[in-house]
TrEMBL record:
It comes from Algoriphagus formosus. This is WbqC family protein. InterPro entries: WbqC (IPR014985). Pfam families: WbqC.
Length: 207
């Protein structure tokens, strides 16, 4: 059984899913320290004229705090902004009518902690792809022997080409003539639906 220790991202990009592709168990640690400008609260989608970053606002400036304690700031109507952005980006894609209701229901809930929202996001994405990986929340007693640790590896400031994880395999995107690689998993899900995992398998450098 292969175990991967990973960060928890907000609608993770394709490199993230290639990195966990062969895992049987994915261990997520809410005790990890929050890093500013990380994927914990942001993702990228493709609109008609640009790649747009969707960010979840958090309460206060949070230096040196565990991920599991980061609170979402609901004073900003970010849910409507994100849903509108997703609808604008993917409303005409093949699997929009099938997948979009999952995320409408998600954003109708108000999760106090960003950790809980992201965990539900990951669960939904894995369900759509029919991906039977086991999710485990790390504790003090979690066995760390023989696992692969990718925590801190995937950050917005470093390009995927610097790592030996993800090799872009093009699929039909809704906008643009040139393929835009390594966007949010949303981009691939709306284009390919349950077949998204096969694209990820082809995009993995271990393939």
């Amino acid at each position: 059984m292969k175990t991967v220790f990973a960060d928890l991202h907000y609608f993770p990009n394709l490199e993230y899913f290639c990195a966990i592709l062969e895992s049987d168990k994915l261990v997520l640690d809410p005790r990890s320290i929050y890093q500013r400008k990380s994927f914990f609260n942001r993702t990228q989608i493709r609109l008609a004229n640009k790649v747009e970053t969707l960010s979840v606002p958090i309460v206060g400036r949070r230096p040196r705090i565990p991920l599991g304690e980061i609170e979402i700031d609901y004073r900003q109507k970010w849910q409507k902004v994100h849903l509108r952005g997703i609808q604008s980006a993917y409303g005409k894609t093949p699997f929009f009518e099938f997948i979009f209701p999952y995320f409408v229901a998600l954003f109708e809930q108000e999760y106090k902690l960003l950790w809980d929202l992201n965990l539900q996001v990951l669960t939904i994405c894995l369900k759509i792809m029919q991906w039977p990986v086991n999710l485990e929340i790390a504790t003090e007693t979690t066995d760390k022997q023989g696992f692969t640790d990718i925590r801190g590896l995937l950050m917005p400031g470093s390009h995927f080409s610097q790592r030996d994880i993800y090799h872009p395999v093009a699929y039909v995107q809704n906008f643009g003539l040139d393929f835009e690689p390594n966007l949010s998993i949303l981009d691939l899900l709306f284009a390919e639906g349950p077949q998204a995992k096969s694209i990820l398998q082809a995009s993995s450098k271990k393939h």
